TrEMBL record:
Pfam families: F420H2_quin_red. NCBIfam families: hi_GC_TIGR00026 (TIGR00026). This is Nitroreductase family deazaflavin-dependent oxidoreductase.
Length: 121
């Protein structure tokens, strides 16, 4: 939990500055399901046929995942372009086949098997 808190308050703020321009990074724009506030979360995103896939390194119970599912979608800034995404789908894939090779290896080392698929509107 300390790492997650540090990432939320420090790493995410720094990453948020470069994420819209970097490959495999993006900024997810979502609405707080309780607060109704507009929120942004920088994270690793990977283009997939018809949308994007996000590896859930902290699992499916994070607030941003719950927000996206509750809203039925979100927006994403990826490579300086804004995407409207819908139909969030949680799935488990121990083979991590939607990920690029090097990312697949890294995620395997830390045991990530949960993913969120989002479709372009």
């Amino acid at each position: 939990m300390r790492l997650a808190r540090f990432n939320r308050h420090v790493t995410n703020r720094l990453t948020g500055l470069i994420a819209p321009w970097m490959p495999w990074f993006g900024v997810l724009w979502h609405t707080g399901r309780r607060s109704g506030r507009a929120l942004r979360t920088p994270l690793n995103v990977f283009p997939a046929p018809g949308g994007f896939v996000i590896a859930l390194t902290y699992g499916p119970d994070t607030d941003w995942v719950k927000n996206v599912i509750a809203a039925g979608g979100c927006s994403l800034t990826y490579r300086r372009k804004l995407y409207q995404l819908t139909a969030p789908e949680l799935y488990r894939d121990p083979s991590r086949r939607a990920m690029p090779g090097i990312v697949r290896l890294a995620l395997g080392r830390i045991g990530v098997t949960d993913f969120l698929r989002l479709r372009n509107v």
